[in-house]
């Protein structure tokens, strides 16, 4: 084992810049996430600058290193970016040439031509081929139904990362760089060399951290979090792909170039594409610093510390490019949704209630919302509760053992798993929802939160005309909106339909309402804030999951109730 003393000042997660930022701080109206983002960027730039200054100050080779950096910055990097631009041009040029087919073919119920649906597939295939940055761009665009047609968004929502895993040797090298010369053997007693998951930016390994690492670092930094719990248990180790930042930064430059070009075209200004690319760039850079995800996990755990029904993993340790967190075992939400014939409807409704109420707490009470609430980021565990439901009786070891048992081959059949869950429910086991992958969150600044609350207040009072007015007045660019009176009338009519359904005790699909609202926004060029749209997309995803578990779910009524009376179950 490496006997070098671990330097806690250098290893401490968050570093000085990020540790000085607290959730209660609100500097110049910036959100907690924006403060973390700015601190991370400043620190990264300072690190690069300091490293270069140190190297070029060396007595004999300094001048050679200075020349190398000049060649790298002003010759090699522009050439690599130009080469990437040519590659993307070759890839997307046929897509651009084939655009006229969107005007041909039979129309579907949403008024889109068959040719348009085919062209959307071309766009998706090109994005998948273009690599990680463009897959992420497509996934982000899929959520922007206020800008793009529903057909294009539906097609782009099918995008999946085709990222290749990097080698274990590259992982060992990166860990050594991040942890001041410490090796994988210093940090972990055991680590599986094959990743259990690979994404566009990072991949995840299973490992057991060493007792020395727990004693010297994890435990002191998790007083009250029982840091010793990390030892002798598997943890998830998230490692960034080597060279991910450089590759993404090149692609962002190219996206910015094309966004500025399109913005110069007549009638395209209302899209504000340069600003949208800036927002996307921020989203990507947030995910390039694992400490931000760790900070988000800390805050979610604080917000839900009194909840017995909700769990977030413990972030044991983090550097910029490596995150070590608690491994959560359970049943994936996708598997739970397959169990549509659950005889125990109370259990499925309980899962739905916890998910919905957790989201409403994030949105209305905490103003700190998980921005990627799809089924893949929810895991269901089962914990043994007291008879009054106010205390968890099972410990973590017992829960992990139970979840490990449920993952065995004998429970591959849904019918077998259903029967086991029914038996567990009779033994007073209850579902606990675990949220993972918190790298992206939505947090409204003071101005946007005020606008959101004003709009929600108007909608809850069924004042559709006022809601339409607020959407235009407080949009990014009110001057670009067209046919504003017609837009207000449409919103008023839509809200009136909701009011009539409410008073006749009809179940309202808030998803249908929001989809119609976003269609109006797109047609009338009303530029909504990106955070608003992220919240709307989260609601759409949430209702889809909630209604599969509980067909009687009325999310609109739950939202209004939470607005006036609070969140009941979390």
UniProtKB/TrEMBL annotation:
<dbReference type="InterPro" id="IPR044095">
    <property type="entry name" value="ADCK2_dom"/>
</dbReference>
<dbReference type="GO" id="GO:0005739">
    <property type="term" value="C:mitochondrion"/>
</dbReference>
<dbReference type="InterPro" id="IPR052402">
    <property type="entry name" value="ADCK_kinase"/>
</dbReference>
<dbReference type="Pfam" id="PF03109">
    <property type="entry name" value="ABC1"/>
</dbReference>
<protein>
    <recommendedName>
        <fullName>ABC1 atypical kinase-like domain-containing protein</fullName>
    </recommendedName>
</protein>
<dbReference type="InterPro" id="IPR004147">
    <property type="entry name" value="ABC1_dom"/>
</dbReference>
<feature type="domain" description="ABC1 atypical kinase-like">
    <location>
        <begin position="232"/>
        <end position="464"/>
    </location>
</feature>
<dbReference type="InterPro" id="IPR011009">
    <property type="entry name" value="Kinase-like_dom_sf"/>
</dbReference>
<comment type="similarity">
    <text>Belongs to the protein kinase superfamily. ADCK protein kinase family.</text>
</comment>
